[in-house]
């Protein structure tokens, strides 16, 4: 099967005209019980029983034609709620008493639905805003690890970057399809834990929550560690005597401020765009300085650094680091939920992956060419000190301080959804107080963990191996096959899915082993010192 055909199928399956997306009503896909409440209101107002009108319902993905096992429709092709209305209509011929009882029961369900119904989420994010949200999360600190990953793999790392970008785009599309597995009129899921529960029940939800929360909170720890490290390096030259751990606490406090203010993903648009621009500046500075000041120029009396075509032993470990550079799965459901035109999601995710891959290739090729096997992580520690390096460190620090609240926001939104922390249930003042308290507690815990494990490179490898690889390559494919069935994919896509699972498994197992060994070595070295 030609690659172009496969790409066309991945991008276009279930995504016809973007103009037909749910932007028409600027609301999320309604739950069946909310639809029942809406129709029941019409019943009470107009009198006659009416059929469920799904004209205003919208879904960005069509259900495959052979999808039957996990569909919410019965064998007759009707949704269960349509059967309820049909039974209510048929009861008119049975007797007035039964009809009254059915209507009373329905009104009781409606009242319960009104009490627990979630408020509609705003769908007001355009293409650029959604693109910026995704890229701001993806292209963060991972870009500083790419030259070091190339030193582990050799020049074959270029192929790994391209492959990882394509895998990220593909699994990003599968993730959103899983949210809509119940069909055009079904309930849209909201997060990875809900996908896990729909696919594998309670234990699937628990497993997905573990990896999801480990990724969200672990990545935030990395951002605090890196920010504290860079600020310490910058201010130590000015005679400031505060330690790196103190600066990490200050960074955590700064990150807490937007966490306390922002409530929805759509409110982080300005922060995401600024974070994107900061990352671009960092990549440009690192690339230009690597080319202008390579290792042989900085150290003319030292032997030239080595370069290899391929280093097989280092591929599994470096693969986990490169995969981390493309990971951002936990925010995808929330970004898509805020999009004005959700059918543009495949274009958004692939545009983001292509953009990130180009940036990674620039900094990776330049850094490995300039410093070879002598490059360190983060690569900013390899380039010469001076104004450009200082600017780059300031910009990457600003970026991670901005990206951390966005990463935490996806975690907060899922918790608030699960615990029903909403103004409708608690009232505006109480909801704000509860939300502020538990968000502050989470930031304090993340800061404490960051202070305990200040080894950026190895900690990055461990988090990316365990959580990021699982969320990025394994869970989307496994849950998609479970929800839709293996028959939904043609043979060539099944082969690709097996390849994606194999890549994810290798990166997860070997990367975790190597990262744990390095963390133990770091701890032993710190104790000996």
From TrEMBL:
<keyword id="KW-1133">Transmembrane helix</keyword>
<feature type="transmembrane region" description="Helical">
    <location>
        <begin position="391"/>
        <end position="415"/>
    </location>
</feature>
<feature type="transmembrane region" description="Helical">
    <location>
        <begin position="347"/>
        <end position="371"/>
    </location>
</feature>
<protein>
    <recommendedName>
        <fullName>Amino acid transporter transmembrane domain-containing protein</fullName>
    </recommendedName>
</protein>
<feature type="transmembrane region" description="Helical">
    <location>
        <begin position="462"/>
        <end position="483"/>
    </location>
</feature>
<comment type="similarity">
    <text>Belongs to the amino acid/polyamine transporter 2 family.</text>
</comment>
<feature type="transmembrane region" description="Helical">
    <location>
        <begin position="131"/>
        <end position="150"/>
    </location>
</feature>
<keyword id="KW-0812">Transmembrane</keyword>
<feature type="transmembrane region" description="Helical">
    <location>
        <begin position="210"/>
        <end position="232"/>
    </location>
</feature>
<dbReference type="InterPro" id="IPR013057">
    <property type="entry name" value="AA_transpt_TM"/>
</dbReference>
<feature type="transmembrane region" description="Helical">
    <location>
        <begin position="309"/>
        <end position="335"/>
    </location>
</feature>
<dbReference type="GO" id="GO:0015179">
    <property type="term" value="F:L-amino acid transmembrane transporter activity"/>
</dbReference>
<feature type="transmembrane region" description="Helical">
    <location>
        <begin position="495"/>
        <end position="513"/>
    </location>
</feature>
<feature type="transmembrane region" description="Helical">
    <location>
        <begin position="156"/>
        <end position="180"/>
    </location>
</feature>
<feature type="transmembrane region" description="Helical">
    <location>
        <begin position="269"/>
        <end position="289"/>
    </location>
</feature>
<feature type="transmembrane region" description="Helical">
    <location>
        <begin position="244"/>
        <end position="262"/>
    </location>
</feature>
<dbReference type="GO" id="GO:0005774">
    <property type="term" value="C:vacuolar membrane"/>
</dbReference>
<keyword id="KW-0472">Membrane</keyword>
<dbReference type="Pfam" id="PF01490">
    <property type="entry name" value="Aa_trans"/>
</dbReference>
<feature type="domain" description="Amino acid transporter transmembrane">
    <location>
        <begin position="124"/>
        <end position="516"/>
    </location>
</feature>
<feature type="transmembrane region" description="Helical">
    <location>
        <begin position="436"/>
        <end position="456"/>
    </location>
</feature>
